[in-house]
Structure formats: C-alpha cells, structure tokens
Fold Pyrroline-5-carboxylate reductase.
Amino acid sequence: MSQLINNLNKNICFIGAGNMSTAIIAGLIKKGFPSDKIMASNPSTPKLDTLAADFRIKVTQDNQEAVDFANIIIMAVKPQMMQQVCSDLVFSQDKVLVSIAAGIKVDRLSSFSRHTSPIIRVMPNTPSAIGLGMSGIYASDDVNEADTQMLVQIMSSVGKAIIVKNEEDIDTVIAAAGSSPAYFFLIAEAMQKEVINMGMSPEQARILIEQAMLGSATLMQQSPSLEFCTLRANVTSKGGTTAKAVESLQQSNINDIMAKAMRSAVKRAQEMSKQF
C-alpha cells in the first residue's frame, strides 16, 4: 500500500456516502492515504458529518463539486439511481469513472454519463467494512495498466482484489464473493437453530459456530497448497461422526444446491443488466 500512498498524487471522490464508501474511505485512511485528497458527496448531511468527523475528509452535498475535485470518481449509488445521478453531472475526459453498482455494464455507464474516458467496474463485498473484503475489478479496453493497478491498490485497502479479463466475469464475482457472505450466514443460522434444538443456549450455539467458521476460513488461508477437498478429507475420519454428516450433505446434493444458488445470482445480475 505504501506504493499507492507515495505515487498516487490524485484526488478521490465518492458519490454516495453509504456503507461501502465508508468502508473504502476507512481503509484508505488506515493505510495512510491523505484525508485532504478524499471528498464524499451525499444528498443529506448526517452521513457526511460523520465521515468528516471520523476521517477529516472533505464533504459536500453537491455531486458536481465532488466530480470537479477528483481524478478518480467512485460511483457508490444504487443501480436504479445511477442513470439519474450520472445524467446530472458533467465529466471531463481526464477522469477515471469507477462503478461499484451491480448489473450496470460499461457501455450503459458510458451512455448514462456521456463519459468518454476510462470506466472501471468494481464488485466488492460487505466484509470490506472490517478490512476483509474480496473485490473483483473489470477495466474497459481504454483503461491503462496504471489506472487498473491503482484500483487494485485502493480496493486492497479493504481486503483482497483480483482483476477479471471479461466483463461477464463480474457476474461470477458476484456469485462467488459479492453474495456469498449471505450464504455463509444462512448456513450459520441453520446450524445455530439446530444447536438450540439440541438443548444449548443461543449464546453457546453462536460462539461454537462462529469460531468454527473463523477457524476453518483461517485454516484455508494458511494452507494454500491444500485443495479444499483435501482439507475436508483431513477432517473426515472414515466411519466417524464427520463422515456421517458429510455423507448426509452429499446425499442431499449440496453441490447441486450451491451450484443452483450461485447460478441464480448470476442470472439475476444478467437480468439487472437489461433493466438499466
């Protein structure tokens, strides 16, 4: 991150001051990015007041002021609001426009904004709020390598980031990372309910499950040479309790269940791209 701080002599603005903007701003400031090079814009003041107090960044209720201030414009508004917000703004060609909205392709963003300079799509996920996010980045053909790497550095301030070659791959990122925290929370919820049914308290159930999930995720990260199937096999003694549980899951077609869920996420992203 020090390379970004030393070499990125550019201003960044966030159009929209919601949770993801706050997470990225917090990550940048934590890594040492100058607060006076960041501006956030939002229609109402409470979120802006909090950002200004917590991070000492510049704030405004005028989106155009933010755009004029910045070299890098991060559009952090809801997909259904993107066209209206963009149409009210005037962009110059030396700006880099970045969208974190699902379902809106580069060509549509370009038409919304009348923006002829580079456009980058970024798909982060909610663990970015605690610095453990996973982001996918797609850069249009006219984006230079320096600008792409700049976005990698920015998103790396809140977790990890990968570059995808095809815009369609952003939909896969949504299925694999953007939406997946909800899958894990759903599994945790189901497990907690059954532990409670077995007689333990909600508090005991929660600590058992969240620590097991945290430990499992950490073990995956600390065992990069081991495939997930090998990690699973290492826990699954033949004829033991884990083997019976895994067998039950496999008999319930867990692979098909997960595949269907992820493809449903991709399908919805594709449907959204036709709406905007």
About this structure: The CA atoms of residues 17 and 46 lie 10 Å apart. The mean pLDDT is 93. Residues 2-166 form a domain with the Rossmann fold fold (CATH 3.40.50.720). The chain has 13 helices and eight strands.
